[in-house]
């Protein structure tokens, strides 16, 4: 017995990213210590051995996750094995799988790959029980000294011939995903389950999209190719879900179906450490992509050196020291005296080849305009000097320096002209605009980011810190801000392209959350105190605070005349029926909004908490699940079931920590009741 305990401890230790110190003589627990594995670890993340096996999501779909992160077959589902990972034709293998303490995310570290020294692979798989899907994040790190190109394959085999495969743009049996396409819906054959498998494989405008190969309709493989530079980490994100076959496979129906499982929806669940590594997500929604939309200092095409560099044309580079006096820049929002000690680079008008002078500052600001009196004296290292006006200057790169650290709470305003201005917390800007549902007022402190709206909407897409994300039209109002060195500047909002925080601000959802058409989210308070649903002719009145979730079923059955809704209550009850309201009233940013039901996909409410008395009762009943008396165990099980969804956090904590297998089995049985619902 002592040997078995010791061997189990060794296996668990071997699976830890920071504890792989096994002997190189052992091929199975392979290799010398590799501290590069720590790059794929999350500091402070607590992991425990994974509890694998069949899980059932809230929509009643069963999932069987294998130890290597692939899907195993469950019952009559159409998949035999799903999303088997291979890298350069080598199947991914693993040490002991692990999971987070809440049991929601599996963390699977790969064994070393033959012939790919220095390549580390990890799979992170999150169980999204709310929408009935699995979110995969495949991570690859190159600890070698050379670039490496990886051919990555995700292979799925089916129990029989599937009927067809179709993209979210209604293209049938594609060999690769085209513009705007994000994934593939595989529909079952006649002898299979009535559930389809939906694979989301990339963002709509992702630079990396997979090719698709099929095997006589018995299988489908997705292939990606990525290149890792030395020391680089890249990730590939994808999701899989089971869904009822839509009545029609038209573009509108498929777009709405895929939207539920999109990578953009999964993005808040990606660990912060890996957000910027995901190679196949959309670029137009990522903050890093937005910043690339405005010229950075690298855009002037001059490599930085230990000395100043004067560039003339494509080939001429002079190394030395540049000096110039403070000069005035006449910008579109006023005249600014440029502090030369803060200058990082200058792109002059180059004898009229450019229409303005552009000045790049050390704190990330970019200013452009006319500078007729600006001059640069340049002394070359080997002797000689030259003097140029900024109108004649091509490009000047100042020697390497330490960039200024952005202050907490600061952000950058990007203009359509290419300027980038620092917005400090002291600016305290106030905004007001119109949405399709009401007026929206918010402050600089409320704002996470503001970007141009998609699809030719004449306004902006905004995200607030409370989780609201919607399109808003801001009028041409003027506002003042401090640039940090020349007093107040006056801008008209028509000149603003985006407002981006210096560091990503994580949104926190507080309150009721409504998902609307066009990928918009509103967070606020329900104004209605009760809802009346008609189910099979029976009117049922429900208090708003008893409702956990409302789902508009019209987006599934296409019925737009009435409003069939599925209401899930906190006590575990479910009501499907007609909601005869024309509009839903919500309070958003202290304003009363009226939202047509046609625009609502779903509503999720923030849950009430168990009071202390009920919490103690749940703890007592959990203890009774391990009683020697069968009658006591059964009574405790039934009483725990009556607490509904409110008890789930406590029960999940117990299932991960309680040593009694009988207690864990009964808790799993209780939880499965709500998962099936």
| Helix content estimate | 10-25%
Shape: globular
Separate helix tally: 9
The share of residues in extended strands comes to 35-45%
**What are the low-pLDDT stretches, counting only 5+ consecutive residues below 50?**
1-36, 284-294, 503-507, 556-560
Rg of Cα set? 29 Å
Q: Please report the total strand number as a whole number.
A: 47
Q: How far is the first residue's CA from the last residue's CA?
A: 42 Å
**Structural class by sheet pairing and helices:** mainly beta
Strand line-up across the major sheet: 41-40-44-43-42-47-38-39-45-46
The major β-sheet equals: 10 strands, antiparallel
What is the average of the pLDDT values? Answer: 80
Task: Give structural notes.
The chain is mainly beta and 677 residues long. The strands form eight sheets. The protein has a ten-stranded antiparallel sheet.
